[in-house]
Amino acid sequence: MNHNKELAQDIVKSHVVYSLGAGLVPIPLLDIAAVSVVQLDMVRQLAKLYGKDFKESSGKSLISAITGSTMARMGASMVKSIPGIGSILGGVTMSVLSGASTYAIGQVFIWHFGTGGDLSDFNFEKAKEIYEKEFEKGKKVAREMEKEAQKESRNDDIATKLEKLAQLKAKGVITEEDFQAQKKRLLDQF
After folding, report:
1. Is the dihedral of CA 30, 33, 38, 41 positive or negative?
2. 65: which residues sit within 8 A by CB, 6+ positions away?
3. Is residue 110 within 8 Å of residue 8, measured between CB atoms?
4. At what angle do helices 56-67 and 124-170 cross, to 10 degrees?
5. Residue 73's CB: how many other CB atoms inside 10 A?
6. Among 103, 114, 124, 187, which is most buried by a count of CB atoms within 10 Å?
7. Rounded Cα gap, residues 171 and 16, in angstroms
8. How does residue 9 score in pLDDT terms, banded at 50, 70 and 90?
């Protein structure tokens, strides 16, 4: 069962990453739809991992019932409709909230499937209690994952720039001294 729990956490974490991206969709309400698709896919994968039958309609209903007040999520989505800053502010907020919600939903289903439950015998009171607790933890997890993704993106960008510098040097466009100076500047950013 420990092996299942590790695999289940991997499924949740990968879907948190997808939710972070889906939460950045710049069109109000479309981001919520995108996150819902990610969460439903996560529940489908968790059900399969635990050997439980999965029905999409049941999965959607359970996710909606557990998350309850989607109005708060919609509020973050609607902030995006404010020109300029609204898109940036709403996107950052929605991204973290989407990741946190996905994390919390994942923890609820890991608990439920791990205790032998299936989609037909849900304890909503306990599920909501777990969701609320895990949502707070999920905010931290989502922020950390978002920072890590940004760091990886920055590192990839630096590696790409180093490759381009090497090509420029190889073509004789820049000198060895220019190459070394630019390389040092880029590597100092790591």
Report:
1. negative
2. 122, 124
3. yes
4. 100
5. 21
6. 103
7. 43
8. very high
